[in-house]
Amino acid sequence: MMRLACAVLLAALVSSGAVAATNSPALDLARQINNAFIEVAETVSPSVVVIKVAQRNRPDALDDMDNPFWDLVPEEFRKQFEKERERRKKEGEEGERGGRGGRRGEKPPEFNGQGSGVIIRDDGYILTNFHVVEEAEKIVVRLRDGRKFEGTVRGKDAQSDLAVIKINATNLPAAKLGDSAAVRVGEFAVAIGAPFELDYSVTFGHVSAKGRSRVVPSLGVNSQGAMMDQDFIQTDASINPGNSGGPLVNLYGEVIGINTLIRGLHTGIGFAVPVNLAKEVSEQLIANGKFPRLWLGIGIRGLREDDDNTEQIKGVDDGVLVTDIRPEGPASKSDLKRRDVITMVDGKTVSTSTQLRNEIRGKKAGIPVTLDLVRDGKPIKIKVRPEPWPESLDEKKGE
Asked: Domain range for residue 341?
């Protein structure tokens, strides 16, 4: 009887301890965090789409050895891409001979590219990356509920690597766009997309840094030769090929960036276009089909942007150095000179090339801007009239 009573008492103590542990504040907090990630995934995923692209004359972005991403791909993945390229080459030859039941000399568009996107308006407008839809011959958009729509490119902007696709649909679940200026380094970040054709994959991490520019030197110029003119949000949320164009969101379910670049696979170093720029660009793409830009026609470099730069400029420690003035640019008509250091634009401090570009981008064509600069150690002010970026130029070499 005594032994039985002790057993009952021990069982009661163990039971009460388990209940106490289950209801501990630490576990309650962990459950709340767990539920927060689940709620973000469930809330945002319906606004994410999978984009398949047929590019008749262009291989996959990561299947092209001339693509700047190629050197960033681990060897085991390169071998997979090489095998896939050989398979497609063989199928192409069969198609030219009339194989697979097709007529001689004809081959239907092959869906050889895939990315992600996010619905930004309920009437069918979808935001993605420029490089996802570049040279697209046909686009198919698949929604979370399985519906498929043919998509058309409403507008694209190579310099920001953003594009807008339109599908013929209404009452779509548009994502909530946040404020990337309010993003704080260290906060949680969730990426949703279709890496390696694994649709609606959800990964999480943190915002590792803000204001990243020149993130990969070889990618400073995109495939059309246009300089990428914005900074990036860096994240360690896992991003891989196929995530491009998908959203990076915070724990409130707000989009804070558009996932765009990675620095090697499985490195925990990914980059997203800040959503504030994405909103600015997408609104113009929807309204006008293009994003108008202004330029000054100068080559620039932030004094602190190049760690190897040991050049000392008299009278200034921080600012944007003018390295070149293009003869056809607006600055050639002003008093601006090479080796001037621009420190302010209309009273706003600029320390990097991206900050200077951002300030000029927000101005109006033909309206003079005041540049505070240092020349030969002395502060002076000059005025320059920004002009629309000439469409005839193939390459953006400055601001």
From this structure: 294-388
Nearest to 144 by CA among 90, 104, 194, 204: 194
Q: Does residue 161 carry a catalytic annotation?
A: yes
* CATH code where residue 373 lies: 2.30.42.10
Is 131 an active-site residue?
A: yes
> What residues does 188 pair with on adjacent strands?
206
Tell me: do 224 and 285 sit in the same domain.
yes
Catalytic residue among 201, 223, 238, 244: 244
Q: Indicate whether this model's pTM tops 0.85.
A: no
* Backbone phi and psi for residue 5, each to the nearest 5 degrees, phi listed first: -65, -40
Asked if 196 and 120 sit in the same domain, the reply is yes
**What does DSSP assign to residue 251?**
T
Is pLDDT of 307 > 50? Answer: yes
Which of these three, 291, 312, 343, is where a domain ends?
A: 291
Choose the catalytic residue: 63, 157, 161, 229.
161
Question: What radius of gyration, in Å, describes the C-alpha atoms of the chain?
Answer: 26
Q: What is the pLDDT of residues 378-388, one digit of tens each?
A: 999 999 999 88
- Residue 86, SS3 per DSSP: helix
Selected catalytic residue, list 47, 63, 116, 131: 131
Q: Locate 45 and state its tokens.
A: 């995923």
User: How many domains, the chain?
Assistant: 2
- With vertex at residue 162, the alpha carbon angle to CA 279 and CA 361, rounded to the nearest 5 degrees, is 60
Active site residue 244: yes
Together in a domain, 156 and 260? yes
- State which of 269, 291, 313 marks the end of a domain: 291
Residues 268 and 317 in one domain: no
| Average pLDDT, rounded, for the chain | 80
